[in-house]
Amino acid sequence: MIVADVVVPHPDEVFVAGEWVAAGDSGEVVSPATGRPVAEVGLPSEKHALAAVQAARDALATWAELPVARRVEICGRFCAAMEARLDDLGTVWAVESGMPVRYSRTLHRFAAVAAWRTLLESAGNVLCDDSRESALGAIVLRREAAGVVAAVIAYNGPLVTVASKVLPALLAGCPVIVKAAVESQLIMRIVADCAAGAGFPAGALSILCGDAELGRTLTAHPAVDMVSLTGGRMAAQAIIEATRHRFARTHLELGGKSPALILDDADPAVVLKTLVPGATSGGGQVCAALSRILVPERRHDEFVALLEQAWEGLVIGDPLDPRTQLGPLASPAVVERTEGFLARAVADGARVVTGGRRPAGFDGGWWFEPTLVTGVARDSDLAQNEVFGPVTAVLTYADPEDGLRLANDTSYGLSASVYTADEAKGVEYARRIRAGSVAVNAFGPALTAPFGGVKGSGWGREAGPEGILEFTELKQILLGGRR
Fold first, then answer.
1. Would you say residue 483 has pLDDT above 70?
2. Would you state the pLDDT for residue 427?
3. Does the annotation count 253 as an active-site position?
4. pTM of the model
5. Given 253, 369, 386, 470, which residue is catalytic?
6. Domains plus CATH for the chain?
7. How far apart are CA 186 and CA 158, in angstroms?
8. 415-448: per-residue pLDDT in tens?
9. Could you tell me how far CA 473 lies from the centroid of its own chain?
10. Strands 176-180 and 205-209: what pairing?
């Protein structure tokens, strides 16, 4: 099948246990830019999910007992194949999700590629045994695979999540069943095709693009030892409920309401350079998006004027056009959710500075302008909850301590940024913000280091060398009887 001049392999099959097998049903891939179908693909069934779990269980001993260097070699071939097809991956992702190719080129090369190269380089050292002495004898500390992993990933960054979640689990020795979003049919077929030629043992990797019911089948399965989710809170609560009876491990990355804390001495040019893409890239459909801009009261009007100019200068258009900075949203549901948040904010007294409607000239598809809102109440829905759409709130604070309180005044704790002319002061403030990742005069996180949330943004870390350890169990081996 050819989509936007890209060959998409095995459109009527699904990737189970390293092989392409006949699909259970079929469905349409709809372009968010036009609202019209662009492809028809095969869909996985419960039968496929059960077969993937059984194959993963059968492969556990084989994959986990391979020398780390051998696992690195196989995963390295997988990553090299994906690197060779980055342009194709970005193109089909634009078609099915609306994420502009301009955005994917940056995200894939500087996040996904950087993440998996770091993992491949560090796995050998991270997973080696450690030795200690005790009064009872020498101790060997050994890292072993946590078991079969179900990795549930979202539509808004599938390749990055493969790099930060799936690769660490594979390198740790865990067979993985990927449950990707239904909106990721095309990109994940290319990813699976790259995996098919890498040399994984049968059962070490399955990739299923299915609905929530398929996810429930996987997460509730007694042979799944660990569930790693990138998604929303309701999905996380369902996973906790499904796994608690068997004490399966969970790793949850649940989004955020990330603040950009602009201190009184911040240089606007430095702020705008990373704050604008940090707040608007991906149409706000980014877990770490800087969706709350916190400014000193005395500089509110100055920054709002600059932000308004920046927001209105963003190029909205065809996601396949390399000039486009913002494309359509992923689905009608995302548009409806965005409109709901905005309507409630305005009803609460907030003011729309710019945006807030469907852009002119777009007759089909699911479009919404990047929207900047000020006068937002601290306890409002828009200030407290994740929109996952292109609406950014501006809030003011009275003094630095009030700014810190405001930055922490949310149930989320995934990411944040601090802008200041004094880096040391920025680091001091970063230490006092409750978030898994804080950038100073930048937008993060860097996926060559571990990333994850606190509070309602979940638990566990992925990416970086430590991300591999998330998918291991630590075993103590005591060597007694020595003289």
1. no
2. 98
3. yes
4. 0.96
5. 253
6. 2-254+457-476 (3.40.605.10), 259-446 (3.40.309.10)
7. 11
8. 999 999 999 999 999 999 999 999 999 999 999 9
9. 24
10. parallel
